[in-house]
Design goal:
Number of helices: 9
Largest sheet: 6 strands, mixed
CATH class of the largest domain: Alpha Beta
Shape: globular
Bound molecules: zinc ion
CATH superfamily of the largest domain: Zn-dependent exopeptidases
Order of helices and strands: HHEHEEHEHEEHEHEHH
Number of strands: 8
CATH topology of the largest domain: Aminopeptidase
CATH architecture of the largest domain: 3-Layer(aba) Sandwich
Keywords: Hydrolase, Membrane, Transmembrane, Transmembrane helix
Protein name: N-acetylmuramoyl-L-alanine amidase
Structural class: alpha/beta
Organism: Frankia umida
InterPro entries: MurNAc-LAA_cat (IPR002508), N-acetylmuramoyl_amidase_3 (IPR050695)
Distance between the termini: 29 Å
Number of domains: 2
Strand content: 5-15%
Length: about 300
């Protein structure tokens, strides 16, 4: 802006140098222009700065818009990136049965992948890390259930225990589905009463977390609600160890269908994942009573 106006004034100098206006007059009019442009630029800069903490505002690339650093202070959030990069090579380890809330289930599974071979474990880990960065910038204490994408497990009961032992305020298990190729969209899975009836206390808050996340994730990504299962982007299940064993509010988020070409094109896109992270962080923030940075002035 400022560079442009200087160039413009320079042009005026040379245009008028041929004698129509005395140089002093030209200089004066140029000076007035400089002042006008400077004022305009300053105003524009202030406007930009004022919008700096706009929400989902996810600027170009959707990156690091951050709310005031103390807003989630004291809140403990667990992000559970589904599956793991080493699971495929460890069938015995992940295939063993573990307690899952009145039923037993496999320790872990390999997960889905796109037709082109982008694996769910890589997607979930990337999204968990992005979301953790946003939440930490907002002041939260964030723990991931795995810190690399090359290991095996942990088993679903251990994943649940991590949230329980920390007394987490919210836990989100991040996944992408391997549904029918014709179906697309995302959905949230909330807990139903587990077979051992031990997760009763988390049903209400988990449902609230689910509905909040459904709103913010859809808004941030533009991803439609799943059209191939559930109702309005939601399913309620009692067959998932991660939900049956949780004693703290927890949901699963299936971010899209890896087998659907339209969804797959989004899931592999880092810019889309940045928006997805914003949607996740905003949903968790709202659930915890701290609205994500909003368009409304905060001061
Ligand atoms: Zn999964």
């Amino acid at each position: 802006m400022i560079g442009t106006s200087s160039a413009l004034i320079g042009d005026r100098w040379s245009n008028h140098g041929s004698g129509r206006w005395p140089p002093v007059v030209v200089w004066a009019s140029g000076a007035v222009l400089v002042i006008i442009f400077a004022l305009a630029a300053g105003f524009g800069l202030r406007t930009l700065l004022g919008d700096g903490d706009a929400p989902g505002g996810a600027g170009p690339g959707g990156g690091a818009d951050v709310a005031p650093a103390t807003s989630l202070a004291g809140q403990v959030i667990v992000l559970d990136a589904g599956h793991n990069g080493g699971n495929g090579a460890a069938p015995a380890a992940i295939g063993r049965q573990v307690p899952a809330g009145g039923i037993s289930k496999e320790c872990d599974t390999v997960g889905a992948q796109t037709d082109a071979g982008y694996p769910e474990h890589a997607f979930t880990f990337d999204l968990a890390e992005r979301t953790a960065r946003l939440l930490r910038a907002r002041g939260a204490t964030v723990r991931l259930t795995r810190t690399a994408d090359t290991g095996v497990g942990p088993c679903i009961d251990e994943r649940a225990r991590i949230g329980n032992d920390l007394g987490a305020d919210a836990v989100v298990s991040i996944h992408a589905d391997g549904g029918p190729a014709s179906g697309r969209g995302f959905h949230v899975i909330a807990p139903a009463l587990s077979p051992d009836r031990a997760n009763a206390a988390i049903l209400a808050p988990s449902t609230r977390l689910a509905t909040t996340l459904r709103t913010t994730f859809g808004r941030a990504t533009g991803e439609p609600l799943a059209d191939y299962l559930g109702q309005q982007g939601m399913t309620i299940r009692s067959d998932l160890g991660g939900l049956n064993l949780s004693r703290v509010p927890k949901v699963f988020l299936e971010c899209g269908n890896m087998r659907n070409p339209t969804d797959a094109a989004e899931l592999v896109d880092p810019a889309w994942r940045a928006r997805a992270a914003t949607g996740l962080a905003d949903g968790i923030s709202s659930f915890l009573g701290i609205p994500p940075a909003s368009p409304t002035p905060r001061r």
